[in-house]
Amino acid sequence: MNTIAAKVKTPNGAKYVQQLCKHWSHRLQTQTEGDVGTVTFPTAIARMTADSDGIAIAITGESRADLERLTDVVASHLDRFAFREAPMAYDWNWQETTG
Questions:
Q1: Residue 11: what pLDDT?
Q2: 22 Cβ partners below 8 Å, 6+ apart?
Q3: Residue 95: inside a domain, yes or no?
Q4: Deepest in the core among 27, 33, 57, 76, taking most CB within 10 A?
């Protein structure tokens, strides 16, 4: 498994996590619990955790190519919802995982 992660600074993280999950819930399996949202894409799972500083995003899956594509999908959707703050700064980092 591979994970690519970023922390996005915004004072409105919880609101954006809720909006993103609601938006994707029409086509994908989503779950929200408090300030944490999970979206299950066909090839990966995105977990977004909001706090007072922003949103921690982690996308986990098998294919690095799919994960790279999903960074663009997640970022473009977040920028769309956060249009007053966009473009947001994303510093994606790879994490190799096992299991």
A1: 95
A2: 30
A3: no
A4: 57
> 99 or 90: whose pLDDT is higher?
90
Asked, as a colleague might, if the bond just before 11 is cis with ω within 30 of 0, I would say no
Rounded distance between C-alpha atoms, residue 22 and residue 13, angstroms: 14
Q: What's the pTM?
A: 0.92
pLDDT the model gives residue 97: 65
Helix axis angle for 64-81 and 13-24, nearest 10°, is: 110
Q: Is 27 in contact with 20 (CB distance < 8 Å)? A: no
The answer to whether residue 13 is domain-embedded is yes
Question: Number of folded domains in the chain?
Answer: 1
The SS3 call for residue 94 is strand
**Do residues 55 and 49 make contact, with C-beta atoms less than 8 angstroms apart?**
yes
Per-residue model confidence as pLDDT tens digits over 55-90: 999 999 999 999 999 999 999 999 999 999 888 999
Q: Which amino acid, residue 33?
A: E
